[in-house]
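User: Okay, second chain of the day. Same drill as before: sequence in, structure tokens out.
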Amino acid sequence: EENQKNTAEVMDLAASLRKTKQELERQETVGSGLSASFTARASAAGELLKENEELREQLRQVQAEKAESLKETTYLAASLREARQELQERDVIATRDTNSPASPTSSLNTSQRPGLDVV
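Assistant: Same drill. Structure tokens below.
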């Protein structure tokens, strides 16, 4: 009887040991999968960080180009305002001179007025 009892206990322990071994193997498989998944995700995250930095650099370049373009546009707008102002001043002077009775150019049309460049 004692021998049968011990044999039954050994059989229970062996079955329990097999279940524990199977569970450890399953966990190891899951762990390997998780490790591979983690490695893949870490690699993908690294790639995304690299791509993000490249995009930031492109953004900096575009912003620098935009700032330069804005400077040029501002300069051109100022030049245009100055040119318009100068033309208005010339037109006022030419109109005044043309309307003056003593003016020798009063009979000349605008394109014939001396000192006025056609722009």
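The chain has one domain: 2-112.

User: Thanks, on to the next one.
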